Amino acid sequence: TAARLVVVGGGFGGASAARFARATYPDIQVTLVEPLTRFVTCPYGNLLLGGYRQIGDITHSYDGLRAQGVRILHDWAAAIDPAAKTVRLRGGETLAYDKLILSPGIALRYGALPGYDEAAAEVFPHAWVPGDGSQTRLLRRQLEAMPDGGVVGIAIPANPFRCPPGPYERISMIAAYLKRHKPRSKVLALDAKEAFSKQGLFQDGWKALYGPMVEWVPASSDGKVIRVDPAEKTFESEFGVRHKLAVGNVIPPQSAARIVIDSGLADQTGWAQVDPTTLASRVAPDIHIIGDANNAAPMPKSGFIANNTAKQAVASAVAALRGAAPPEAVYFNTCYSHVGEEYGISVVNIFRAGPNGFVEVPNSGGVSPRGDLPEQRRLEALYADAWYASITRDMFG
Ligand code: FAD
């Protein structure tokens, strides 16, 4: 009988894994478990906030994967039994697997930031998980409804979190909207950190495009938000300042998705430890944990890495089933960010498997050059569009 590969989570890691497995190993039976029937990507969600994309532009169906022969079950994985090698679904069915690819993404740690729970997210949207897009649309509607002259607060967490440059692209895209429609308003970005991804490039861009409309505050200058109050619409800082906001976006602290933690696959950090060559769980060798749910530092929690690790995990799982060695691991990452509609910047890195974990290949990466380079920025915004088109095609067909 055909080997059974079960994939849990149909986002950047899981959809990539399912499609790659079907295309590369036609003799393997692939089942994908994902509750969403339509997937709204986090990447390019910030462009929706800026007014440069509509929800339909970033919504994808599973029909392409189905046409490719992936069996798709729109359900939740409720429990995993690594010893019996089964996944029980919320709907009642139990799936047996030979190898499991687990890519359920992140959980938002409600309660870790006092005042921020699920109800508060209806006032201060996070817009940080794919879902049905309702969070991103809510944030967009709030921006449209706010008066000119208001403050948009963004609370940014400490490391590690999904998409290191994401909060800063969000600052940029919200500022781009405000500049066109509410020019007396500002973005107040309160950060629990001292430094961030592509910092120099972002700050150059903010200065050039938005001037005093963007204020970014590091932790040492009282940027750390320690409490939010949705009723009063305030963010309270570590040193006791209450910032009154017209709109608040909270990017809360995160962990691996619940199914990872509930199945005993995460350690005390809240993330899953994996082998850097095969992405196999350190505690359950037939479960490969990819995407944001694992601790793959220094690799970023990005869609690009989720897609790369998906292919390496599938190839390693199939090799193990055939009694062969896994392929040598090499992981690529490119993260594009939009500072303005026609102003793109990027960071590139290459990683390999080291003896004790993931390692960055020395001198393998870099960021866009700094300076007044409008043509370079215009081209990188186009490259970003091309990246989005190609990765979503690689996921969904
Ligand atoms: P996800 O893509 O979140 O997919 C997880 C899936 O698992 C979801 O569909 C969920 O419904 C499902 N799931 C969860 N639990 C279960 C369960 N129990 N049973 C079944 N299914 C389950 N990355 C880039 O590379 N480039 C970018 O430009 C970029 N921009 C971003 C912008 C923003 C605003 C944000 C928030 C993120 C951005 N990212 C970007 C990061 C990227 O979105 C994530 O790194 C990527 O989605 C991780 O893939 P994943 O498969 O781990 O999780």
From TrEMBL:
Residues 136-252 form the Sulfide dehydrogenase [flavocytochrome c] flavoprotein chain central domain. InterPro entries: FAD/NAD-bd_sf (IPR036188), FAD/NAD-binding_dom (IPR023753), FAD/NAD-linked_Rdtase_dimer_sf (IPR016156), FCSD_central (IPR049386), FlavoCytC_S_DH_flav-bd (IPR015323), FlavoCytC_S_DH_flav-bd_sf (IPR037092), SQRD (IPR052541). Coiled coil: none annotated. Residues 4-118 form the FAD/NAD(P)-binding domain. Keywords: FAD, Flavoprotein, Signal. Residues 327-396 form the Flavocytochrome c sulphide dehydrogenase flavin-binding domain. The keyword Flavoprotein applies. The keyword Signal applies. GO terms for molecular function: flavin adenine dinucleotide binding; oxidoreductase activity. SUPFAM superfamilies: FAD/NAD(P)-binding domain, FAD/NAD-linked reductases, dimerisation (C-terminal) domain. This is FAD-dependent oxidoreductase. It comes from Siccirubricoccus deserti. The lineage of its organism: Bacteria, Pseudomonadati, Pseudomonadota, Alphaproteobacteria, Acetobacterales.
